[in-house]
Amino acid sequence: MLSEHFTEALTYATQLHAKQVRKGSGVPYVAHLLGVASIALEYGANEDEAIAALLHDAVEDQGGAATREEIRCRFGDNVTAIVDGCTDADTIPKPPWRERKEAYIAHIPTASPSVLLVSAADKLYNAQSILKDYRILGESLWQRFQGGKAGTLWYYRALVTAFSQTGSSPIFEELERVVSELEKLVEEG
Questions:
Q1: Of 48, 57, 60, 70, which residue is the catalytic one?
Q2: What is the pLDDT of residues 162-182, one digit of tens each?
Q3: 90 close to 64: Cβ distance less than 8 angstroms
Q4: In the chain, fewer beta carbons within 10 Å around the N or the C end?
Q5: Which among 119, 108, 34, 110 has a CA at the least distance from the CA of 83?
Q6: By the 8 A CB rule, do 125 and 174 touch?
Q7: Is 61 in the active site?
Q8: Catalytic option among 47, 61, 90, 133
Q9: How far is residue 73's CA from residue 150's CA, in Å, rounded to a whole number?
Q10: pLDDT < 70 regions, the chain
Q11: What is the pTM (predicted TM-score) of this model?
């Protein structure tokens, strides 16, 4: 069961991301955080992993090192380590897109099981959103992404490959199914 600690993290995440919206859709960013936490819990996350799922973008998008220390003080070293493992950049300006994505993929094989779960939940949520939005928007969707169409498709296929190299898991298999469905849809044009 989830404790008051989870409720505190939910409130904190909502406050941190209050003014943030999803790229191109205008959907409040908290929808993404709730979705990632939901997926993580559905695939067996414990409370620390669920809290990290709520906070997985906090360091990257909402304050860098200062936010990391606040997370450590409020939720502990374990949650902070998971959040760090899901963060692809904590500096402003961020390094170039391709460089960040290659570094993120390279760290997956050595990531802890908790980081793998929360990261896969994040990528699964994003891949499902891309698939849904592609069905609605078609090719214009790719304008939202720094990597464009080719870079985004490369990134998600590379993630599937990297996750699968760590072993088999139902969440990795679901990510592979969603990414394959997206690739097939794009190919059919």
A1: 60
A2: 999 999 999 999 999 999 999
A3: yes
A4: N
A5: 119
A6: no
A7: yes
A8: 61
A9: 40
A10: none
A11: 0.95
- Read off the amino acid at residue 42: E
In this structure, the number of other CB atoms found within 10 A of the CB of residue 168 comes to 8
Torsion on CA atoms 158, 87, 130, 28, rounded to nearest 10: 180
Q: Is the dihedral of CA 120, 103, 143, 27 positive or negative?
A: positive
The two structure tokens encoding residue 10:
């939910």
Rounded to whole angstroms, the Cα distance separating 172 from 1 reads: 24
Q: Does residue 48 carry a catalytic annotation? A: no
As a whole number of angstroms, the distance between CA 168 and CA 147 comes to: 28
- Taking residue 125's Cβ as centre, other Cβ atoms within 10 Å add up to 23
CA neighbor of 102 nearest in space, from 154, 30, 138, 53: 154
Residue 109 burial by Cβ neighbours in a 10 Å radius (0-12, 13-18, 19+): exposed
Q: Would you state the structure tokens that stand for residue 101, as one six-digit string?
A: 């994505």
Residue showing tokens 């909402």:
62
